[in-house]
Specification:
Blueprint lengths: L2 H13 L3 H22 L20 E8 L24 E6 L3 E4 L6 H12 L8 E4 L17 E4 L1 H10 L7 E2 L3 E2 L3 E5 L8 E7 L2 E7 L5 H5 L10 H14 L2 E4 L5 E2 L5
Parallel strand pairs: 3-4, 4-5, 5-6, 10-11
Antiparallel strand pairs: 1-2, 2-3, 7-8, 8-9, 9-10, 11-12
The structure holds zinc ion.
């Protein structure tokens, strides 16, 4: 009686793919495209589909999470002039978690309730659970929320700590950090944005990750190897970004979401 309808239903059913079917078909199509590309490039039939990542698997860092995704006050890649800010900036704030530590890089939010809410929203932990705060450089937007972590160690590269402590703007002193934090995270000099700027490098899940602070403003600035408008040395900024491109799989920039280096470099 309903043969027309039933036929249509059957056709619809046969068009439905399970996730496994879909992946098998998509993979087959990708391989076919790759093989065609190889034959265009001279007939090489052996294609390595696996990407070579730069990180180690045996890291003490178990996971990392972006807490706030930053933005710039002015962004030339959005058609905005460097001459004046058009919005409030916040920096990208990142949590690095190991078996027995949690390091929060560049606490970004000046309001204590906002900072605690974002930390909870992204990770479910409380400010008192943070082992150490690390600040990449002395600009105010990168330490806006530090006072809301009175139970944590406050760390920065020794030269950065000296500048911050001399300014007298914080209720407690920032300690000069060693080159390796908690036997798990390397502090690396990344000058150009400021003379004394330092970033953090670690491996996690076989990936090499750099939490760059403002040595990389955003993905677009990295692609162009351009320092932000207030960089102290643009040439040095570009060389620092070249160094990061060579060592990192993923960069977490100072005012943008994280990105895969090989998709941008
Ligand atoms: Zn800065």
């Amino acid at each position: 009686m309903n043969s027309k309808h039933d036929k249509k239903t059957d056709q619809t059913k046969s068009n439905l793919l399970t996730r496994g079917d879909f992946l098998a078909r998509a993979g087959g199509a990708m391989l076919a495209t790759a093989a065609a590309t190889a034959s265009c490039l001279g007939g090489q039939s052996t294609i390595t589909m696996r990407h070579k990542w730069k990180g180690r698997n045996d890291s003490n860092v178990k996971r990392w999470d972006v807490i706030t995704i930053g933005n710039l006050s002015r962004n030339r890649y959005w058609g905005e002039s460097d001459a004046r800010g058009v919005r409030a900036a916040i920096c990208t704030c990142t949590l690095i978690t190991g078996k027995d530590f949690r390091v929060l890089v560049d606490p970004s939010l000046a309001d204590g309730a906002d900072m605690a809410r974002e930390l909870d929203r992204r990770t479910g932990i409380k400010p008192r659970d943070i082992t150490a705060i690390f600040v990449t450089h002395q600009h105010g937007d990168h330490l806006a929320g530090i006072a809301h972590f009175p139970d944590s160690k406050w760390l920065a590269a020794p030269a950065v700590a000296e500048i911050i402590n001399k300014s007298g703007t914080l209720p407690c002193l920032v300690e000069g950090a060693a080159d390796r934090l908690l036997d798990s995270i390397d502090m690396i000099p990344t000058p150009g944005h400021t003379d004394t700027h330092h970033s953090l490098h670690f491996d996690c899940d076989g990936l090499s990750i750099v939490v760059a602070g403002d040595s990389v403003a955003t993905r677009d600035f990295f692609r162009e190897r351009r320092g932000y408008y207030n960089a102290v040395d643009f040439e040095l900024s570009a060389r620092t970004m070249d160094k990061l491109a060579a060592m990192a799989d993923i960069v977490v920039p100072g005012h943008d979401n994280h990105f895969l280096v090989d998709c941008v470099a």
